[in-house]
Design goal:
By secondary structure, the protein is α+β, with helices and mostly antiparallel strands. It is 32% helix and 26% strand.
Length: 113
């Protein structure tokens, strides 16, 4: 995997000061790596908002998820409204999936207006 932009690792709090800490005019991410970030907690909407904020036309999300509760299934369905999602690896015995996701065209248009 080659990057078009200089790799950068930053800490973030989901949904908090996204434009201040990660201005869309300056921050360009080729890849977003996320591992086991969806679990039973009250911040799933903020996580979805954060993924959406950080993505641009060519950003690829590589995201590993362990399915534990129905809440995780609901999150994946909401995620699919914004992103095109492909399961690239599946470990059914462990209930783990690796996803590759990119922005849907409709999400890009919404963000541009």
């Amino acid at each position: 995997m080659r990057s078009k932009h200089e790799p950068e690792v930053k800490e973030l709090s989901w949904g908090v000061d996204l434009e201040k800490n990660f201005p869309q005019s300056e921050c360009h991410y080729d890849y977003i790596l996320a591992a086991d970030v969806v679990y039973s907690h009250p911040y799933l909407e903020e996580l979805l908002m954060t993924f959406d904020h950080l993505c641009q036309d060519d950003t690829i999300i590589l995201w590993t998820m362990k399915f534990r509760l129905e809440k995780e299934n609901n999150f994946v369905e909401k995620f699919k409204y914004i992103f095109d999602v492909e399961v690239i690896y599946n470990l059914p015995s462990l209930q783990i999936k690796l996803y590759r996701a990119t922005w849907k065209i409709s999400s890009r248009l919404r963000k541009e207006t």
